[in-house]
Amino acid sequence: GEDVEQSLFLSVREGDSSVINCTYTDSSSTYLYWYKQEPGAGLQLLTYIFSNMDMKQDQRLTVLLNKKDKHLSLRIADTQTGDSAIYFCAESTKGRRALTFGSGTRLQVQP
Amino acid sequence: DADVTQTPRNRITKTGKRIMLECSQTKGHDRMYWYRQDPGLGLRLIYYSFDVKDINKGEISDGYSVSRQAQAKFSLSLESAIPNQTALYFCATSDPKLAEMNTGELFFGEGSRLTVL
After folding, report:
1. CA dist A4 to A29, A75, A89, A99, B88, Å?
2. Mean pLDDT of the residues in chain B
3. Rounded Cα gap, residues B59 and B42, in angstroms
4. Average of pLDDT values for B42-60?
5. If we measure between CA atoms, which residue out of B80, B78, B76 comes closest to residue B92?
6. What 3-state DSSP class applies to A99?
7. Among A5, A103, A101, residue whose Cα is nearest residue B39
8. pLDDT at residue number A51
């Protein structure tokens, strides 16, 4: 079945760049997403990328998609303490009725 | 007020008890979902519903049931709770137009933390 994998933890210093990685197995994925979960809250969509794109940039966020290797990454420039959260990668496929989520990467930003 | 509201936010119960988690939404979305979050396992889909007459099992539906009482309400029941159902439960909704376009944005409630002793 479909599988989405992420490393569980990342620690960076404030002001550095963070790179969170994700791999997926479904070659027919149409959209790939990054959701953010702040402490005590539900998940919120951070950004998404369509599968025919290689890159998407939105202010401090850069999403890179390598469809050949089924690898997705989220780069956060100038990471701030407010970026500390769990980041979930997710994917959807046309015809499948729900998203598949990864295990989440906990980002810890050290002051 | 939150667009997706879950009650209760926290619940401690004992093995064998029946528990209901409720979700209501004011977004007018047709599609509603129940997910379970466990540390290191991410979110796993329990049940989902695309309209009032539509109920579908997700990947981990055993031990759970759902009821879609109205477009805005989707409740999750544990008929006889067991300790390995201790988890954080999330309700989510999506917009059918967005879903058909496959942009797939889900709107989540704040979660219901359930502890089964």
Report:
1. 11, 18, 7, 10, 20
2. 91
3. 13
4. 92
5. B76
6. coil
7. A103
8. 86
Q: What is the DSSP string of A13-78?
A: ETTS-EEEEEEE--TTEEEEEEEEE-TTS-EEEEEEEETT-SEEEETTEEEEEETTTTEEEEEESS
Q: Find where tokens 């197995």 sit.
A: A25
Please give the Cα distance from A108 to A11 (Å, whole number).
5
Calculate mean pLDDT across residues B59-78.
96
| Nearest-Cα residue of chain A relative to residue B58 | A98
- A39 to chain B: closest CA residue: B110
B43 contacts in chain A (CB < 8 Å)? 43, 88, 101, 104
The reported pLDDT for the residue numbered A92 is 84
pLDDT tens digits along B70-94: 999 999 999 999 999 999 999 999 9
Structure tokens at A61: 């966020």
Q: How far is B74 from chain A (nearest CA, A)?
A: 16
In B, which residues are within 8 Å of A34 by CB distance? none
B8 upstream amide cis, omega within 30 of 0: yes
Q: Please provide the size of chain B in residues.
A: 117
Q: In this predicted model, what pLDDT tens digit does every residue of A11-69 receive, in sequence order?
A: 999 999 999 999 998 878 788 999 999 988 899 999 999 888 899 999 999 999 999 99
The residue written with tokens 């919120």 in the block is A44
